[in-house]
C-alpha cells in the first residue's frame, strides 16, 4: 500500500538521521566551524520535523491542521529538502575542499593513524555523513514526490494504494 510506503520513508528518514548523529558524536568534525554547525542544526531540525510528521499521521490530527494534510507534508518535505541541500553543499565544501580547510583525500588525514573508538578515522566519518546526507536528501525527494501527487490529485490526505 502507498500509505505503508510513506510511513516507511519517514522511518527511513529518521533512521538515517540517527546514524548521522552517531557519526557526529565525534564533535571534532564540526565544532567551532559555523558552516558545519549549521549542518548539525539541519540534521536536528529535519529529524524533529520527520518525527512530528510521523506523530501527526494519525486520524485525529489530520483534521486539526489549518491546511490540508497533504499540503502540510508537502511543505515539511520541501523545507527538509532545502535544508538538506544546504547541509550537503556546506558539508562537502568544508570537509573535503582544501580552500575551506577540508581534506580531499584520506591519506592526508593525520587522524587516520589514530583510529577512533569505533575503528573509523575522522575522514571516513566525514565521508559517511556526506553519503548519508545525500541518501536522506533523495529519500525526502521521494517523499515530496508522493505528497506533490496527493496535492495535485486532491485526495484530501487519504493515501491512495496506486
TrEMBL record:
Its main location: membrane. Belongs to the MAL family. Residues 1-152 form the MARVEL domain. The lineage of its organism: Eukaryota, Metazoa, Chordata, Craniata, Vertebrata. It is a multi-pass membrane protein. Pfam families: MARVEL. This is MARVEL domain-containing protein. PANTHER family: MYELOID-ASSOCIATED DIFFERENTIATION MARKER, MYELOID-ASSOCIATED DIFFERENTIATION MARKER MYADM FAMILY MEMBER.
